[in-house]
Amino acid sequence: MLKLALQGMRTRWATFIGSFIALALGVGLIATTGLALAATFSAVDRGPERLVKAPVVVKTSDLVRADTPIGERTQTITDPAPVPAAVTAKLAALGRAVEDRTFPVSGPGLAGNTVGHPWSVAALTPYTLTAGRAPSAPGEAVATGDALRPGTRVQATTARGSEQVTVVGTVASAGFENALFFTDAEAARISPDVDAVAVHAPADRVEAAVGAGFDVLTGDERRRADPDPDRDEEALVSVNALLGTAAGVTGFVSVFVVASTFSFAVAQRRREFGLLRTAGATPAQVRRMVLTEAFVIGALASAAGCWLGAAGAPRLAAWMADAGIAPAWFRIGEQTWPLHTAFWTGLFVALSGAVVSSWRAGRVGPTEALRESAVDSRAMPVSRWLIGGAVLATGLGSLSLALLDSPGDVLKRKTYITQPMLLIVGFALFAPVLVKPLIRLLTWLPARLPGAVPMLAGENASAGVRRTAAVAAPVIITVALAASLMGTTATISEAKAGEAREQITADYVATAGGEGRALPDEFVRRAGAVPGVTVSATRSTGVTVLEEGVALVKSEARAIDPAAHASVSRLPVVAGRLADLDDDSIVVNEEWLTTKVGDSVSVWLGDGRKADLRIAAVLSAGTGNNGVYLTERNAAGAPVDRVDLALPRDGADSAAAALGAAAKATGVQLLTRDRWVEAHYPRSSENTRLGLWTILGIALVHTGIALANTLMTAASDRVRDLASLRLTGATKGQVLRLVGVEALVVVAVGAVLGAVIAGVNLLGVWSALGLLDVWSDVVVPWGTVAAVIGASALLAAVASVLPASFALRVRPVELAGMRE
């Protein structure tokens, strides 16, 4: 049987080469994304950076701890308290102590994430002067890197206001921050709080001196005193989510397309199987031959795919780092399990795609097989009806249950990416019975136009149901994914923006120009002094709650003045009153476990204090941006990072001018409400767009391979049909036009079914938003969908016309006599 299988493969190499390429590329993509995904499971071990020369570092503990039935649980807090002066004095008595302060600095000519430090801590990195001198007076600073040279004057804005600073020296960049170093006295004036203390003393003596509530860091633990010590892990979270999505979609598309390709390749050989049965081959022998062929092709293609994946994964990692999607240090590790997974997945898909068709081919008798090879008499077996119905019912049922039980889950990435996959499989399984009515609908009007090409194209596509369904399948998946993924993300982004426009009633919003950066106190004072202007200052903080007794969950929170905030916003309160918010209460949203007004909840505040607060009001969940609200007293240590401003009815122009002058003088970004929403709620981030286009590119590549393989395989079996057309008087050009139009009709069928799937998915998202009281228009990515359909149509036309043109080089009489 192996010898017969190898001889058949050699004879029909054109059929098998397409299946080999499709499977090898599919396995290669699975291996590539799998290796990249495996590299996100652990961050690089950097060790301490800023205070690497400090023997011991002391800082206030930034962890809350809770004992649970499954062990101790910890969670970081957002606003740890500064090191008290009394503790700093004790540490200074033990040995040389250096006070560390970190505060944001912004202004023209400065990088968006610039921070300030006292000069005395520069030696602990260690930074060394590359030009100029150390700062020695107020208004002087040393800059990292070479963007600012000695003698340069910059307008630096800090929490204390905006003033001109002269760069008197530079140090080589350490790679993890953009910094300005001021004199120790100037840094203490700008930021009086001490963030950490570097101590040159034995760790045991330091621990005895500071007592409980402080972290005494030595060795690699000193990294916890670095700026954003968890940035590597946090960066990998988004990379992991992107690659996880890409790996899931890649695996699904690969399995779907490759299984369809193998199944069609086997189905096209029914006449060959019939001849074998006539010659005395048993059904079991036919099945073993097909499975042997699939095993050989699957093993070779999977091995080739693993080689492609091993070569492609480092290039993918390098591209992601260059594009800013992943950290600059992101590299592929030494893991090999993704290669094993990809290999066995490819082999399993090859065997699965062949076994179904081979089972059917082995069941029919010789005469029935020969007769069935001419026209597809029965489009689908009973098993396919049952499986397709079950898959569609599961997809639609899960969407309905999610809408009824938890509509917010429909808006999550994991849901709106996996949901279309069930619908795609379901519609693809029903494709053989859906294509005929769709073809008749799509060709009804063209068939009535002069010329026989539209009519013949529709009839040919209807006669070859399996061929049409196999060609339409990759188009279905590509169009459905393009419209669903792009449309859903754009619709959710638009809904978030609409929700923000609805909630913000202020005329202007002021920020420091960076996420979480503190606004200068001077701007808040000057804005409050403008007659008639309502000022609502917001502090971003966080609260931590122990959910179900086993998990510490941190939620974003905002500290406000309830009366002032009510004048500049319209929060979606569903229970209670915002006006009842006081120092002993909290406002939560519907996603909290406890949402009854008047109930008490135990939380850890942003500075680590534990407090029992009464629920004053409950907000709707919305799109997920409605967080927790506290009073300013419960946000100690959190700086003001946003100010909403409402102008008076009389004198609005003069008030706006005064606010603009205050913003310019203090380096604050002042935007109107609409401009602020537009700037903070774009359709999607650059990383999201790149990730989605990567996924769509994978799907489109698979579509191209599947179309080319299927149409070329089908063309080899249609040689005699083309000869018959030529013998009846059709010219070569007419035959090629017919073949091209038929391919376009099939692509149109796939596009319609893909659009239906996307429509169901987008309708589910729109319904979920409505159930969350967030009404938004559905955003359809017409340009993306048109580009995908156009690319599919071009690939299909080329893949069908090209082999037909080669076949038509032979005289029609010779074509008619050729063996298939």
**Spatial shape:** elongated
Q: Can you give the mean pLDDT?
A: 82
- Overall helicity: 40-55%
Q: Total number of β-strand segments?
A: 23
Give the uncertain stretches in residue-range form: none
Structural class: alpha+beta
| Rg, alpha carbons | 34 Å
Distance between the termini: 22 Å
Question: How much strand content do the residues show?
Answer: 15-25%
Instruction: Describe the largest sheet.
Output: 10 strands, mixed
- Please tally the helical runs, counting DSSP H or I stretches of 4 or more residues: 25
Family: Belongs to the ABC-4 integral membrane protein family.
Subcellular location: Cell membrane
Membrane topology: Multi-pass membrane protein
Organism: Streptomyces pimonensis
Task: Please provide a written account of the structure.
With 820 residues, the protein is α+β, with helices and mostly antiparallel strands. The protein has 25 helices and 23 strands. The strands form four sheets. Strands 14, 15, 16, 17, 18, 19, 20, 21, 22 and 23 form a ten-stranded mixed beta sheet that branches. Strands 5, 6, 7, 8, 9, 10 and 11 form a seven-stranded mixed beta sheet that branches. A hairpin with a 5-residue loop joins strand 19 and strand 20 (610-619). The longest helix has 40 residues, at 283-322. It is elongated, with a radius of gyration of 34 Å. The chain starts with a helix and ends with a helix. The mean pLDDT is 82.
